[in-house]
Design goal:
The protein has 197 residues and is an alpha+beta fold. The protein has helices at 2-33, 86-94, 96-106, 109-113, 144-155; strands spanning 39-46, 52-60, 66-75, 78-79, 117-118, 124-126, 131-138, 159-166, 172-176, 183-185. Strands 3, 4, 6, 8, 9 and 10 form a 6-stranded antiparallel beta sheet that branches. Strands 1-2-7-5 form a 4-stranded antiparallel beta sheet, covered by helices on one side. α2 crosses α3. The termini are far apart.
C-alpha cells in the first residue's frame, strides 16, 4: 500500500509538471501572438479621393507594434544609392531618359517633378493598424509623361521595396513587395539592409 501511494504521488507530480510546462508554453505563445507585427507593403496610382497620385507605403496589419529598421527601394533588382531625394533617385534609376527630357523641357528637376510629399520610414515604430507613406506624387500636366513612365515601371514590377522590422520580443522579419509572406531573420542589423536607412 505504501508503494502504491508513493508511486501515485510521484505520478501526480510528474503530470503536474507536464501540465504546468504546457500551460506556460501556451501562455507564451498567446503573449507573443498578441504582440505580433505584420508589415504589408503597398503602392498605387490613385489617392483616397480618386485623384491621380503615385504612392508607396507600408502598413502594420498585425496585433503588435513594429520597429522598422530598414526600408529599401530597388529598381530592376538593384538598390537605390544611399542619401538624397527619394523621388529623384527612383526616377534616375528607372526612367532617366524621360527624367532628362522633362528637365530639359521645364528647366530644372523641381519644375520637372512638381510637388511631392515624402517621409522617412526606417528607424520608426508603427502601431497596429498604423501606416507610413514614404512617397506621394500627384500627377499634373507638367509632369504627366514622367509620372506615367514611373507608374509603368511600378506596374511592370521593376520597382520593389524591402522592409526589415522586429517585434517588441526582438523577433525579426524581412518583407518584400514581390513575395509573401515575410521571412524570418535573426536580425535587421545586416550591412546589406542599411542602404535605405
Amino acid at each position: 500500500l505504501d508503494m502504491v501511494v508513493a508511486f501515485s504521488a510521484l505520478l501526480i507530480s510528474v503530470v503536474s509538471i507536464f501540465v504546468a510546462q504546457q500551460s506556460n508554453q501556451s501562455m507564451e505563445r498567446i503573449t507573443r501572438a498578441s504582440a505580433w507585427p505584420f508589415i504589408q507593403i503597398g503602392s498605387g496610382n490613385a489617392s483616397d479621393g480618386g485623384a491621380a497620385e503615385l504612392n508607396f507605403s507600408i502598413s502594420n496589419v498585425g496585433t503588435g507594434p513594429a520597429r522598422v529598421y530598414a526600408y529599401d527601394v530597388q529598381v530592376d533588382g538593384r538598390p537605390l544609392p544611399p542619401g538624397g531625394h527619394l523621388l529623384t533617385r527612383i526616377l534616375q534609376a528607372c526612367c532617366n531618359a524621360e527624367f532628362e527630357a522633362a528637365i530639359a523641357r521645364t528647366g530644372g528637376e523641381i519644375a520637372a517633378m512638381g510637388p511631392e510629399m515624402s517621409s522617412p520610414v526606417a528607424e520608426r515604430f508603427i502601431a497596429p493598424n498604423g501606416e507610413i507613406t514614404s512617397l506621394r506624387w500627384p500627377r499634373s500636366e507638367e509632369n504627366r509623361a514622367l509620372w506615367t513612365a514611373l507608374d509603368s515601371a511600378r506596374q511592370g514590377g521593376r520597382i520593389t521595396t524591402t522592409v526589415c522590422y522586429c517585434s517588441v520580443f526582438d523577433e525579426c522579419w524581412i518583407a518584400r513587395s514581390n513575395s509573401f509572406p515575410p521571412q524570418e531573420t535573426n536580425s535587421c542589423e545586416s550591412p546589406a539592409l542599411q542602404v535605405g536607412r
